[in-house]
């Protein structure tokens, strides 16, 4: 049976940039993950599909961005599954693949976590994996507790030993400030359309892929 621990980051990665990579590396080091898995979404339920770059392009850019890090992996799990890319189904598939002996840490930003009650089967997510919520710098305990879903707040208990919130299922929610770089995919797409350099905002291989395939040149193309 597989053991150890993995970090997981899903998203549109439209495109992946150095902020994603630095955050993943920081969390991998902080939590001593055996590996960190990036999962590009195929059909994100909260974003308009017609304005999103094709999933295969986004997945290939993630592959190019992570290929030189032996601890990073890319999964096409959501691309291979039909329908919307619901996080609960992705975590269920990961749990089935890695088994109960593996600690799975599903990562998201505090903005996404604040809306988790709108996600499909959101209560079940807390029973399947530990969550890492990347929070804003200097956010205190009161801010963290306010982010916990109101309808499920009584199911959590603060654990000072590891500064986490333990769910009744035994899984945990960690709020961590990782000093995220101020880089955004939206800004990168706008720079490409304006003919400005994106060097050092994305890995060179990703920049070359964007240039070679002339991505993000049309207004609103690839938004998400």
What's a concise summary of this model?
Helices cover 35% and strands 19% of the residues. It has 224 residues and is α/β, with parallel strands linked by helices.
Throw out a few tags for this protein.
224 residues, alpha/beta, Rossmann fold, eight-stranded mixed beta sheet, 9 helices, 35% helix, 19% strand
Describe this structure in words.
There is one protein chain. With 224 residues, the protein is α/β, with parallel strands linked by helices. The chain has a single domain, classed as HUPs (Rossmann fold), CATH 3.40.50.620. 35% of the residues lie in helices and 19% in strands. The chain contains nine helices and eight strands. An eight-stranded mixed beta sheet has the order 3-2-1-4-5-8-7-6, sandwiched between helices. Helix 2 links the parallel strand 2 and strand 3. Helix 2 packs antiparallel against helix 9.
**Helix content class:** 25-40%
Average pLDDT score: 91
How many structural domains in the coordinates?
1
Tally of alpha and pi helices: 9
């Amino acid at each position: 049976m597989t053991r150890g621990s993995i970090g997981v980051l899903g998203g549109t990665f439209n495109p992946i940039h150095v902020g994603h990579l630095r955050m993943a590396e920081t969390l991998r080091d902080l939590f001593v993950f055996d590996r960190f898995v990036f999962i590009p979404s195929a059909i994100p339920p909260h974003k308009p599909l017609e304005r999103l770059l094709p999933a295969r392009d986004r997945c290939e850019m993630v592959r190019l961005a992570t290929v030189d890090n032996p601890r990073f992996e890319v999964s096409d799990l959501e691309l291979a599954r039909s329908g919307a890319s619901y996080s609960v189904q992705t975590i269920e598939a990961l749990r089935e693949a890695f088994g109960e002996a593996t600690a799975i840490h599903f990562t998201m930003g505090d903005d996404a976590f604040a809306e988790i009650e709108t996600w499909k089967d959101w209560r079940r997510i807390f029973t399947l994996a530990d969550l890492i919520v990347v929070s804003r710098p200097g956010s205190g305990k009161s801010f963290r507790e306010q982010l916990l879903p109101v309808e499920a707040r009584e199911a959590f208990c603060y654990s000072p030993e590891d500064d986490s919130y333990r769910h009744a299922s035994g899984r945990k929610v960690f709020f961590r400030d990782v000093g995220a770089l101020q880089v955004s995919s939206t800004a990168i797409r706008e720079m490409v359309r304006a003919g400005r350099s994106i060097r050092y905002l994305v890995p060179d291989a990703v920049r070359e892929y964007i240039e070679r395939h002339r991505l993000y040149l049309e207004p609103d193309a690839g938004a998400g």
